[in-house]
Structures are given as structure tokens and as C-alpha cells.
What does this fold into?
Amino acid sequence: MQDDLFGGPPPGPDKAPERPGARRSGIHPAAWGDDLRALAARLPPSLRLGTSSWSYPGWQGLLWEGAHSEQLLARKGLSVYAQHPLLRTVSIDRSFYRPLTASDYARYAAQVPGDFRFVVKAPSLVTDALVRSEDGRAREPNPAFLDPLLAAQEFVAPALEGLGARTGALVFQLSPLPWRLLDRLPEVLERLRALLLAQPALNQPDAVLAVEVRDSAWLAPEHLAHFADVLRSCGATYCLGLHPRLPPLAGQLPLLRRLWPGPLVCRWNLHSVHGPHGYADAQRLYAPYDRIHDPDPDTHALLARTLAGVCGRGQNAYVTISNHAEGCAPLTLRRLAEQVVGDRASAI
It folds into this structure.
């Protein structure tokens, strides 16, 4: 029995087919071509590509047909997103702003196929050394920073319970540190070790704990070996953070090499042209996120080669890309996928 254009079953005997031109309710996939499906089939199975969240009306025609509000897409767009041939992961970013419950995670898991995996950001409750006002300004030190028990109770345990086998990378994205802590980074690294060691066993086949940072000091030569030892001793990995606050990708790979062999986690957050505080500029210039504005071929080339090498040796890789990377995350992902496929073909 042939499926229809949008992947659903044909109308049953009790359901009349829709009239030509009739308006359909709900969110429906865009008409993805055979070329997109063929591209997805040539990617390594251990590579999961995705975006940072999914609730963008500007992706009309790329992910879904028709115009929909951001609110509707946030509630009901994930199941359509997960049908896209290239999209096998997504970053849940709202968990950074407030902890989610196991039920919240379970609702997400119920909307995606069995081979889909989630990348989830830990709440700032435990990853930011500062308590901040709504506009992001620091107010006071955060007494819960790197609290092992809170990290387990408010993040790792509920994520594992709710997502189950769909758990991918659980990312502790550590916000920029105040100078008083940057000057004592070895002590902070040992606090990070205690936090990671205290987390419950992952017990899911593709789950991994990852640490992302926002200060280049973590990657400085005097701290690199210590950072690698902390991650390796806890069975965790480093999350490549493509963000202007950090060295470019080539400057972060030495840490990943110290952790080899192991999975790769990468979050491409913001194009370097906007500087370390450029989210507002990127949002103003790139919205509604329906086309590429600032291509970054150098990052594409090195990231694609890295992914081809990691996945070619049987390791998992999770890559999530923000609209603020080049202007339109789904189009950036397609370009990256094409380059990965090209690199794999040239290596054969």
C-alpha cells in the first residue's frame, strides 16, 4: 500500500479524500524531494544532525507547508520536524531557563521516532556561576553553581526518565565565569569533576554527558590536560561550542583529540562576525531565518572532515545548529550534510 506524499497512510474506507485546493488543518511536512532523501541515506548512521529548537515560522517550505505561529510550532511542530530526512536530533534549549520534568521530556520523546536522539541543555540553575536579572545582568554569586545533587535531581535524572532510549547528549553549558573564578580555574575543574561523578548512570545506548564552555581560558595550554583528565575520568566528553567567545573549531580540536576515542558533540551557536555579544545583532539581521546570510565555508569544511573521520571510526556524533550560525539552520545543515557525503566519497 503506497504512502501519500506526506508520509501518512492513504485515506481509509471511512474517510473521503480531501478535495483539491481544500485547506488542511494542522501542521504538515513540506514536500521534500527524493534528492534530500538520497542525501540523508548517504550519511553515516552514527551522525545525527539537527537544529536548536524548532519553532520558527520562517522555515515554511523547508520543514512545513503553510504559515504557522511560533506558539503553534512550539507545541506541535516537533513531530513534523522529526520526519525531515536529515533531522535526527534537536537541541532542547528551554531547559536552560528552567528545569523540565520527566513528564515534559516524555512528551517530547512521544513525538519522535525510535532512532531520534535529543540534545538537552542543563538548567542555568547549576551551570551559571551568577544569578542574573531578566536582562542577563549579573546580580550576585549563585550558591547552586555546579551543585552535584541539584544537577542530578533537576536535570540528568528527569531527562533520562522521560527520554529513555531517545537520550542523546546531556550538555552542561557553563556560562562565562566571573574573574574571581577564572583565576581559580583548577578549583572549578575539580568541582566540575565532582558534579559529573555524582550523576546517575546513563544506562541508555547513545547517551553521553558533555561540557560546553564560554571562556577560552578552559582551553588554554596550562588547563587543557586538567580539563581533559576531568572529562575522561567521568566518562564525559567536550562539546565543541562554535561561538565567538571561543577559539575557532581548529583551536578546540586538541581537547577532543585528548579524549579520543569517543563521541563528538557540537553546537554551532553564533557566527563569528557578530562578536561575543552578537545574538541580538544576528537575530535582527537574520530573522525570519529563511535563507543563508553569512556563509562560513571554512567551518563547514573542517567540521565535515572531522565528522567524517569520527563517524567513519564508528563513533556517535551529535551536531545542532542555530539560525544564528549562518541565517537559516536547516539550510546550513543541508550544506554540511553535502560536504560530509563528499568527504566520505573522496576517502573511499
Remarks:
- Residues 148 and 195 are 4 Å apart (CA to CA).
- The first strand starts at residue 28 and ends at 29.
- The radius of gyration is 20 Å.
